[in-house]
Specification:
Blueprint lengths: L3 E4 L6 E4 L1 H9 L9 H17 L4
Antiparallel strand pairs: 1-2
The chain binds zinc ion.
Zinc ion binds next to helix 2.
């Protein structure tokens, strides 16, 4: 597998989706990322904040 270049849906920057990452996503049964690592970090931080405020488990 070779790397792919993906355009981030949030900021529009192109980022590299490496073959290692592709394997990881495949193993988890996920399709490719839609956001660059920077935006993913921001989105994750936000969802963690939300999960914390209504944590129910
Ligand atoms: Zn982005």
């Amino acid at each position: 597998m070779s790397y792919q270049t993906i355009k981030c849906k949030n900021c529009g920057n192109n980022f590299v989706f490496s073959s290692e990452e592709q394997e990881l996503y495949l193993k988890r049964g996920l399709s490719g990322p839609e956001h660059c690592p920077i935006c993913r970090g921001i989105i994750e931080a936000r969802s963690k904040d939300k999960a914390r405020s209504k944590y129910e488990r």
